[in-house]
Structure prediction request, 439 residues.
Amino acid sequence: MNTTIRALMGACAFGALVTAAAAETTITVATVNNGDMVRMQSMMDAFNEAHPDIKVEWVTLEENILRQRVTQDIATKGGQFDVMTIGNYEVPIWGERGWLAPLSDLPADYDVDDLLPAMRGALSVDGTLYAAPFYGESAMIMYRTDLAEKAGVDMGEMPNWATVKDAAAKMTDKDNGIYGICLRGKPGWGENMAFISAMANSYGARWFDMNWEPEFDTAPWQDAFKDYLDLMTNYGPPGASSNGFNENLSLFQQGKCGMWIDATVAAGFVTDPAESTVADNVGYAVFPNKEGVDNHGNWLWSWNLAIPASTEKMDAAKTFVEWATSKEYTALVAEKQGWRAAPPGTRTSLYENADYTAAAPFAKLTIDTINEATPETPSVQETPYVGAQFVSIPEFQGIGTAVGQVFSAALAGQMDADQALAAAQALTDREMKKAGYIK
Prediction:
C-alpha cells in the first residue's frame, strides 16, 4: 500500500471518528438526591441502549442546594443544565415567564391524558404543559404498628393532633433510642416550611390575609407552631433542627421513630425490606387536623423534569424527559425492583394496575390524599394565594427560606416560640412591602 493510499485511508478513519463524536449529544441533568431520582440513575442502561447518541451527565444535589442552583441558572440563562428537576411551585411561575420549553408536542404513546388531573393542572399554564411529573405526593402519617400496639395506641384512619400527641408520648422510649415522632426541622421553604405550613393550615392558619398582610401574630399560627415545638422538644430525636426528608427517612428505616408525618412517596422506602428494618410494621393514616377544624392539611407536590427554554440541546433533552416520565419507565422499575418501587402519584393507570395496588399497601391512601388535596383553598379561611404547603408567588422562595431559618433556630433552642413568630411576622411584612404587595 503506497503512502498516498495510507494517508487517504487514515483521513477517512479520522473523519469517521469526528462524525461519530459530533453525533453524540451530551445533556446535563440537575436532580435532587431523593431515592426515586437515585434509582433513576441506576436504570440508565435501558436509556443508553435505546439512545446511544445521547450521553447523560448528572448533577445530584441536596434539596436546598438544588433549588438555589437551578433558580440562579435559569434566571440568568447560565446554561449549566439541559434538564432540571423542579417542583410544581416553580413550573407555573417559570413557564409564565417563558423560562421553560413547552411540552406541547409529546408523542401520542406518551399518553398525556393518563397524567393525574391534579398533577397535569399544576404543571400547566393556560392549558400548556411545561414539565413532566416524575413522581407526585401528598402527605400522611406513617407509624410503627408494633410500637402502637405495645403502647395501646389506636391511631385510626383520621386522627387529630391531640391523638398524635398522645401517641407520640406513649411510643417514646428515649432510653432505647426510640422517639415518638419525627418531623422536618431543617430550614428551607421546601423542607421544614413545607411541613409547618401544612400543619398550620390544619389548624386554620394562613400565611396572608386577603390584603397580603402576614398572619404569624394570629392564634392559629401561635397554636400550631407552639404545638410543633412541644412535640419535637418532648418526643422528637436530638438534633432535629438539622433533619429534613432524607434524614427522617433514615431514622424511620432504622426503627428510631414511632411516627413520621411526611410525603406519601416515603411509603415505598419505609416498606422496602432491603432498606428498612421496620418494613413489616408500618401503618398509615391521614395527615392530622386540629379538633374542630375541618382541614387535614394535605399538600400537593411533584418533582418534575423541565427543560430550560434556552438549552441548545432541545431534542435530546425532550427525548430524555419523555423516557424518564413514561409508562415504559415505570414498567422498567417494576421489572427490576418490583411494583412497590414504581414512582407514585403521576399516572391514573398506575392506580388501576392490580399488580401495583397488591404490592403497595399505601397506594389507596396515596391516591386518595392527592385527589383530596385542595391547593386552591389551603386554609379554612379565604386566601389570596394558592398552594397547599407553599405560597405560589415568586417572593415565597426567599421569604419561606428566611422564616424556615427562624423556625429551625427556635427548634434548636436559640429563641422561644413567641420570638420566632414575631421575627417571622416582621421579616415577612418587610419583604411584602418591598415587593409592593402591601404599603
User: Anything to note?
Assistant: The longest strand covers residues 25-32. Residues 1-22 have pLDDT under 50 and may be disordered.
